[in-house]
Amino acid sequence: MPHSQTYPVRWAELDPNGHMRHSAYADFAADQRVNWLASAGFDIRRFAELRIGPILFREETKYLKEVHGGEQIRVEGRVTGGTPDGSRWTIEHTIYKADGRVAATVTVDGAWIDLDRRKLTVPPAELAQALAVEV
Predict the structure, then answer these.
(1) CATH topology assigned to domain 3-130
(2) Per-residue DSSP letters for the chain?
(3) Which pTM value belongs to this model?
(4) Distance (Å, whole) CA 15 – CA 87
(5) Are 86 and 18 in contact (CB under 8 A)?
């Protein structure tokens, strides 16, 4: 199921042109993704216990509308692809302006890494289920 979170755009997220800098879009998407996983029971402590973690292979951002300091944005993430065992996944983040217009999309392709073996791994069934494709 999609998950969304609202954020204020702070001074630190702005570039010299007065709008949100390119890397801030990725930062907001990553924060939403981590909070989403935590809400499903997979916070940083749980990942440490499982000895696995998420990694990204690709991150692509499409910019559509400017976002300025002081604005509120809403970041919604949803799984748009992946393998049946949950070992690989694609998440699309849509970043909305306060008026509902889409400001950007951030799409990431990722997988899970075994932190001890430093190899890709299959996640536990409950994590795979939490990231089941929702198309």
Answers:
(1) Thiol Ester Dehydrase; Chain A (3.10.129)
(2) --EEEEEEPPGGGB-TTSBB-HHHHHHHHHHHHHHHHHHTT--HHHHHHHTEEEEEEEEEEEE-S--BTT-EEEEEEEEEEE-TTSSEEEEEEEEEETTS-EEEEEEEEEEEEETTTTEEEPPPHHHHHHT----
(3) 0.93
(4) 36
(5) no
Burial environment of residue 10 by CB neighbours within 10 A (0 to 12, 13 to 18, 19 or more):
exposed
Tokens 């997979």 label which residue?
42
State pLDDT tens for residues 46-59: 999 999 999 999 99
Question: What tokens were used for 82?
Answer: 């992946």
